[in-house]
Amino acid sequence: MSRVVVVTGASRGIGAATAEAFIRLGDTVISISRSGTGPAGVARGYSVDVADPEAIRDAFTAIVNEYGPIEVLVANAGITRDGLALRMSTDHWREVLSVNLDGSFYSAQAAMTSMIKNRQGSIIFIGSVSPFVGIPGQANYAAAKAGLVGLARSLATELARRNITVNVVAPGFIETDMTVGVANERDTVIAQIPAGRIGQVEDVASVITFLASQHARYITGAVLPVDGGLGMGL
Ligand code: NAI
């Protein structure tokens, strides 16, 4: 059973590990990232800015034309531009909303056209524990990631009868390029995590492949924390 799986932000970090996990399952994996690269084994890498709705539409049309209906979308591309709200520039506010929230919507909208026709699919948004625990300096990021929960739940309701599930995976601290900045505060961060360790990309990828599998076909509109207990299901 080889599915067509699109992973945004698959050039590194959680996205690359997720793409690798689907490749190991025998799926046809398409990577979308700014650089257009992806891990070994991806069928194709597209260089697209997810915040550009036209470019996203064109890329998804090209994917469907070449590989057939999309069965799984992992909307993972994301950025941070941290700073205290008092001094946060409008650019940093907009940039984070554009990539994390707008980009996820554009990707989901483009993918669902194909899923609705095919009457099956799984959309997985990569959220964060950030909106649930309150992290200073992340007003833009937390707002964008909280927005994904509302987006996912509306879509879950709209698409459930079409046999399409829509869920959010909410990672805590995961070791990637995005979190190198917290390297100096490693011990403080670990002290807050009940599991006593920072998460690895594979911890998140395995939950994503589960949500996209038949084992999870009755799960929709859910927010699944992958955070070693940091948010305790908030
Ligand atoms: P990363 O910085 O290692 O990778 C981000 C990926 O997104 C890269 O492939 C990058 O090219 C892509 N990307 C960024 N902006 C893009 C754009 N405009 N268009 C297309 N691609 C774009 O980050 P990481 O840690 O792997 O994060 C992946 C997702 O997980 C993000 O949505 C992030 O917010 C989320 N997350 C990460 C956590 C962590 O601790 N690392 C915790 C909670 C959530």
How would the blueprint of this fold be written?
Layout: E1 4-8, H1 13-24, E2 28-33, E3 44-47, H2 53-67, E4 72-75, H3 90-118, E5 121-126, H4 130-133, H5 139-159, E6 164-171, H6 186-192, H7 201-211, E7 223-226
Parallel strand pairs: 1-2, 1-4, 2-3, 4-5, 5-6, 6-7
Helix pairs in contact: 1-7, 2-3, 3-5
CATH architecture: 3-Layer(aba) Sandwich
Total domains, how many?
1
Strand order of the largest sheet: 3-2-1-4-5-6-7
β-sheet strand percentage = 15-25%
Would you give the CATH topology? Rossmann fold
In CATH, the homologous superfamily goes by the name: NAD(P)-binding Rossmann-like Domain
Low-confidence stretches: none
* Helix coverage percent: 40-55%
The CATH first-level class comes to Alpha Beta
- Global shape: globular
Cα Rg: 17 Å
Order of helices and strands: EHEEHEHEHHEHHE
Number of strands: 7
Give me the number of helical elements: 7
GO molecular function: oxidoreductase activity, acting on the CH-OH group of donors, NAD or NADP as acceptor
Family: Belongs to the short-chain dehydrogenases/reductases (SDR) family.
Keywords: Oxidoreductase
Domain Ketoreductase: 3-172
Question: Brief description of this entry?
Answer:
The protein is an alpha/beta fold. It has seven helices and seven strands.
Walkthrough of the structure:
The protein has 234 residues and is α/β, with parallel strands linked by helices. It has one domain: 3-Layer(aba) Sandwich (Rossmann fold), CATH 3.40.50. Helices cover 42% and strands 16% of the residues. It has seven helices and seven strands, in the order βαββαβαβααβααβ. A seven-stranded parallel sheet has the order 3-2-1-4-5-6-7, with helices on both faces. α1 (13-24) crosses α7, α2 packs parallel to α3 and α3 (90-118) packs parallel to α5 (139-159). It is globular. The mean pLDDT is 96. One of its GO terms (molecular function) is oxidoreductase activity, acting on the CH-OH group of donors, NAD or NADP as acceptor. Residues 3-172 form the Ketoreductase domain. Pfam families: adh_short_C2. Keywords: Oxidoreductase. Belongs to the short-chain dehydrogenases/reductases (SDR) family.
